[in-house]
Structure formats: C-alpha cells, structure tokens
Design goal:
The protein has about 250 residues and is of the alpha/beta class. The chain has helices spanning about 40-50, 70-80, 95-110, 125-135, 150-165, 180-200, 210-215, 235, 240-245; strands at about 1-15, 15-25, 30-35, 55-60, 65, 80-85, 170-175, 200-205, 220-225, 225-230. Strand 4 and strand 5 (about 65) form a beta hairpin.
Length: about 250
C-alpha cells in the first residue's frame, strides 16, 4: 500500500519549470530513494512534501490525506519527519536536552516552559529521551554539548530527535552529505537497523550511489523536473535512460 503518492505535480518559478507532471508512489514500510543529476528538481519535490512549497497543479497525499495547503508543523504532526542535509540540532544544548525538546512537542503539541516545574520531574519525557538515545547508540554521549560532536554523531542525534515523534514517514535529504567514509557506513547501518526494527517508511534524496544501492528497495529517477524511471535498484542500475541523464549519453552495449 502506498503511504505517499504524488500525482501530476507541476511547479514553476517564473519561466523555469522545476517539476513537470511528476508521478511517484512510496510504498509503506520501504526505503525509497529519489535520485537525479543536479538541477533535476529533487529538492523542489521534497519541499512539496513538507509544506515549504505548494505545487502549481497536482496532488501530494500522505496516508490518505492531502498535504497541500498544510503548514510544515501540521505535516509533522500528521506523521512526517524530515532529516535535513545539514543536521538541524540545538548546538548549545547537550545531547539529552536536544532529544527532550521534540519529546515535549510530541506529548504536548505546543507548550510553554513552566519555571516552577523542573524538567527533572518530567519522568515520562526523560525516559522517552533516554530510550531514543539508546536506540541510536548515543546514550553514552548524553551529557556532551551537541556542537562538539562529529557530523556522523550529529546525524544520529537528529535521527533520535525525529524518531522521538514516532513518524510514519521519514524524509532524508542527503543524510550522508559531508561525512567521512566511516561516518557514512555507520549512518547506512543505523538507517538499516531503524527501518528493520521500526518498519518505518523512508524516502531518501541522495547523491552517493553507494548509499542509494546499499539502502533503497525502490528508486525513482528525476531528470529535468520529471520522473524518467522508477524501478528496483538492479533495473535502475542498467537503465539506459538513467545513464543518459547522468552521463549525457546512453552507454553503448
């Protein structure tokens, strides 16, 4: 069953057609990669998923509900979380404090801090935050200041923050960008582990083909604002249309 469905989506910026009749489906419980050369429209499409952009025409449906005209925080509350290309964390706070913030947001929706009610009394929030850090193998770093960590650990922290909201769909925008190879491999294993354990659906935009073919169960290829192929990884790897889009010419047999 499709959890995310895009139908006939078009988006233009002045005379530039960023997306043209885009159609794709992300099946529930899978890891679905969206790839394409620079300027293909990947980021524009992702921004249509999270409410930062509204398509000129077409529909974007998540779990049977339209995402159009909804604000980003409303989409998040529906069950869609986004992992940004540059980790979005609170760099001046500790790892544990970072995870507690989305735990509060999940429980309370919008909330105000009460100066007379110490956070130490929030046992349910503290237990939830601790479990999230255990899940991403960071409980030993709970008291570190977030700015002092490696990029790979910052990504793990952001994953814990997203997972604390119990999303149905996790959108990842180049999750290994700027990482050393060791951090990249660690992130791949973390995503595999999370998907296997939680059965969470993931849609990944990624330039590193090693990451894509290590993770994806299905791949959609964007070129010049439209989907030119959507298939299993082995079929995408050998598709002449994909080779032409990346290399400028179809590979000879």
């Amino acid at each position: 069953m499709s959890i995310l469905e895009v139908q006939n989506v078009n988006k233009s910026f002045g005379g530039l057609k960023a997306l043209q009749n885009v159609n794709l489906k992300v099946e529930e419980g899978t890891i679905h990669a969206i790839i394409g050369p620079n300027g293909a429209g990947k980021s524009t499409l992702l921004n249509c998923f999270v409410g930062k952009l509204v398509p000129d025409t077409g529909s974007v449906t998540f779990d049977g509900q339209s995402l159009l005209q909804k604000k980003p925080h409303e989409i998040n509350q529906m069950g869609v979380s986004r992992v940004f290309q540059t980790p979005e964390i609170f760099t001046d706070l500790t790892v544990f404090e970072n995870v507690m913030i989305p735990c509060f947001a999940k429980r309370d929706g919008s909330f105000e801090l009460n100066a007379w009610k110490p956070v130490t009394r929030e046992s349910d929030i503290r237990e939830r935050a601790e479990q999230m850090l255990i899940d991403v193998n960071m409980i030993d770093k709970r008291d570190m200041i977030a700015s002092s960590m490696s990029r790979g650990d910052k990504r793990r922290l952001e994953m814990a923050m997203c997972l604390s909201q119990s999303p149905k769909l996790l959108l990842l925008d180049e999750p290994t960008a700027g990482m050393a190879r060791a951090d990249t491999e660690s992130t791949i294993e973390l995503l595999k582990e999370i998907q296997a354990r939680l059965k969470i659906t993931m849609a990944i935009i990624e330039h590193d083909m090693g990451v894509v073919f290590s993770l994806a169960q299905k791949i959609s290829v964007l070129a010049q604002g439209t989907v030119i192929a959507e298939d299993l990884p082995d079929a995408i790897r050998s598709d002449p249309r994909v080779k032409e889009a990346y290399l400028g010419t179809a590979a000879e047999d």
